[in-house]
Write a structure and sequence with these properties.
It is globular and about 55 Å long. Strand 5 and strand 6 form a beta hairpin. The model has no long low-confidence stretch (mean pLDDT 86). The chain starts with a strand and ends in a 21-residue tail after the last helix. By secondary structure, the protein is α+β, with helices and mostly antiparallel strands. It is built from five helices and six strands. The structure holds zinc ion (ZN). The site of zinc ion has 7 residues, from loops. It comes from Macrosiphum euphorbiae (potato aphid). Keywords: Metal-binding, Zinc, Zinc-finger. InterPro entries: Znf_FLYWCH.
Length: 145
C-alpha cells in the first residue's frame, strides 16, 4: 500500500493495483473509495486506520486492478510535482521519470507531448501573469507622481 499526493493536494491510496480517494475521515478509521467510481461505476471501498495503514477491503470492485496503470499514475504525479517545484525543466523531468519506469509501465504512459504540455502548465502556474495589454497593466502609485 502506498499513498501519493496529487497535484490538487488530495491524497490517493494505491493498493493491489487499485487507486482510492478519501471518502470519509472517521473517528477510528478512514474510508476510501475507488478512483474509478465515476468512470466504471465501481463501488469498491476500503478502510484504513487513522494513520492510513492496515487497509481492509470493504466492498469489492467491479473491475480488475492494474498495478502498471497505478505505477503510471504515480510516475505522472511525481513528474507534476517536480515540474511545479520549478527546479528542473519539464523535458528533463519527463526524461528522468520515464527512465525510471520499466518497459511495461512505460508503454502505458500517455503520449509524450501530452505529458510535456501538462508539465509545462504546472510550471506556468508559478509565474505571474503577464499583462496582455496596456489596459491590464497596473502601475504602482509611487510611479505616477
Ligand atoms: Zn474499483
Amino acid at each position: 500500500m502506498e499513498i501519493i499526493t496529487s497535484n490538487k493536494g488530495c491524497e490517493k491510496l494505491c493498493n493491489n493495483g487499485y487507486m482510492y480517494v478519501l471518502k470519509h475521515f472517521g473517528k477510528s478509521k478512514i474510508t476510501w473509495r475507488c478512483s474509478k467510481r465515476s468512470s466504471f461505476k465501481c463501488m469498491g471501498e476500503l478502510y484504513t486506520n487513522i494513520q492510513k495503514e492496515d487497509p481492509v477491503l470493504k466492498s469489492d470492485h467491479n473491475h480488475f486492478g492494474d498495478s502498471e496503470k497505478v505505477d503510471v499514475e504515480k510516475a505522472l504525479c511525481i513528474m507534476k510535482q517536480q515540474s511545479k517545484s520549478g527546479l528542473s525543466k519539464p523535458l528533463e523531468v519527463y526524461a528522468e521519470g520515464v527512465a525510471k519506469l520499466d518497459g511495461n509501465v512505460r508503454s502505458k504512459m500517455p503520449v509524450e507531448d501530452h505529458v510535456k504540455r501538462t508539465l509545462r502548465n504546472q510550471r506556468s502556474k508559478l509565474n505571474p501573469i503577464e499583462p496582455t495589454s496596456l489596459d491590464n497593466l497596473i502601475i504602482d502609485g509611487a510611479y505616477l507622481n
